[in-house]
Amino acid sequence: MTDKSASVRKPAVAGTFYPSNAQVLRRDIESYLSRVPKCSRVGRPLALIEPHAGYVYSGQVAAHGYKLLENLDIRTAIVLSPSHMEYFPFASIFDGDAYETPLGRIEIDKNAAQAIVSSDPGRIRLSKSGHVQPGSSRQEHALEVQLPFLQSVLKDFRIVPIVMGEQNWELCSALGNAIAPHMARTDTLAVISSDLSHFHRYETAKTMDGLFCELVEDMDPRRLYESVRHSECEACGAGPVIVSLIAGQTTGASDCLILHAANSGDVTGERDSVVGYAAAVLWAGADEEKERIGEEGAEETDLTHAEQRYLLELARQSVEMSTGASTNPPHGLETPNLLALRGAFVTLKIGGRLRGCIGTVEPRKPLKDTVREMARAAATGDPRFLPIDSMELPAIDLEISVLSPSRRVHSPEEIVAGTHGLIIERGLNRGLLLPQVATEQGWDVETFLGCACEKAGLPSNAWRDKNTRIFIFTALVFAERPRGTPPRITQR
Asked: How far apart are CA 209 and CA 214, in angstroms?
C-alpha cells in the first residue's frame, strides 16, 4: 500500500468508498458542494467534524463542512481519524512522505508532524500503524476519504495524517494539547473523521445522534467522553472529536455548530439498521449574535425574483396535481440556489384562514424538490384538514417560507418575535412555529415560546425547563402576486 521509493501511502478505498476515476470523483464532489448554501459568516473554522462512510451515503453531509473551506488560504490540514483495522496504544502520525488519491499526492507537513510528536513522544509517534497494514487487503479508510474533499476545496496544502489506535482520555488530552498551537495558526485547521451511531433502528439512531450533536455543540469534551463511555451515544471517532474540543478550549473557539446531520436510512429508505452522520464546525473569532450561520442577512436573500416565481408556480402546480386538476409540472429551472439543500414550508390559506401547512426544517433535499413535496403534503396530508378539493383551487392563497439553518439559544433575550421562528424539543416532543406566526397573532416572545411548547405537546411553561432545547431560525417568506409582477417578499 505504499510507494517505497517515496514512501507514499497509496489509495486503499478508491473504487469502493468513492470513485477511482479522477474525473468522476471531482464531478461528484462538485455536485455535493453545489447543493450547499453559501455561508457569509465572519470568522474562521478551527476544525471540521466530517463523516467517513461511502460518498453515496455521507458525501452530501460532508459537503456542508467542506463548503466552508472554499477560497480559504489553508496551508496545513491536520486530519485525525480512528483506527478501524488494528489496535495500538498511541496516536500514529504517518512517517512517510505523502498520501495519494486519484486526484494526486498530498505531501506530509513534516515540521508540524515532528512538533506534534515532540510534545508527547510516548503517546504520539511517527509510525505506519493505522496507515498501512502489511500483508492485509483491508486498509484504514476513515482518514483517506477526507482527502479528495480537501483536494477539491483547497490549493497548495499539506497534511498531518493522524490515526488514533486508542481513544482513552489521557491520549485525547495529550493530542488535544499537542495540536492546539497549530490550530491557532490562521493557515491551519483540523479535520476530524467520525461517523456516529452504528446499526440501530432509525428512531434510536436519531435519539443517540441528537444527544451526541448536543454535547458537541456544548463544547464539553469531558461530558462527551463520559456519555460515549456509558453508551448514551456513539461515534467511532469520538476520540478525535474530543481532541478537537480540548484543542478548541485553548485556541479561541467561540462556538461549535452542527451544520447538517442525517443517517443512512435517509438515503436508502432502510430504517431497521442505520449509521449516523454529522458535519460540524468549530469556529473562532465570530460574534455569536450577528455572524452565526442562519442569522438574519446570512442566507435569506439568496433567491432571485425569477427563482421565487418559479417556486411559487411549482408549488401551485403541485397543489393542482394533487387534486387531479393538472397533470403537467411547470417548466424546469435549475440554478445553484434551487438545487441547494434547504428546509421549507408551504402554507395554504382561503380568505386569510389556514387551509394547510406542511414543511421540513431539515435541509435534506434540493429546495425545488422540498417545495414540490411540501406543497402536495399541505394540500393532502395536513391532519387538521380534509384534502384540498379541486373546487377550492381558485380561492387558495399560497405562501412559501424558505428556512435558514437553525441554531440553539439559551435565553429568551436571544429571540426576536416576528424575526425568528422557534423549534422546541424535549425528549421525543417537538414543536415548530414559523416567524410570521408571532406577527400575525401579535405575540410577544414569552407568548410565542408558550405556544411553541403547546405545539410540541408540552406545558406552555416548558421552555423554562433546563431539559427543554430551544432553537431559532429565520425565513424568506414570499407569496403569490398576479402573473408578471414580482412576488411579495417579507424578510424575517
From this structure: 8
At 376-418, the pLDDT tens digits run: 999 999 999 999 999 999 999 999 999 988 889 989 999 999 8
CA–CA separation, 403 and 421 (whole Å): 9
Pairing of strands 188-193, 44-50: parallel
Which residue do the cell numbers 497549530 mark? 182
Query: 3-class DSSP state for residue 354?
Result: strand
Region 204-225: mean pLDDT is 92
Give the count of alpha carbons within 13 A of 80, CB side only: 33
With residue 338 as reference, give the H or E element that holds it. helix 336-339
Q: What are phi and psi for residue 160, nearest 5 degrees? A: -120, 100
Across the strands, what pairs with 283? 45, 255
- Structural domains of the chain, ranges and CATH numbers in brackets: 2-284 (3.40.830.10), 305-403+475-491 (3.30.700.20), 407-473 (3.30.1490.150)
The mean per-residue pLDDT over the stretch 325-343 comes to 74
- The mean per-residue pLDDT over the stretch 335-354 comes to 90
Pairing of strands 274-284, 253-263: antiparallel
**Pairwise CA distance, residues 418 & 308, whole Å:** 21
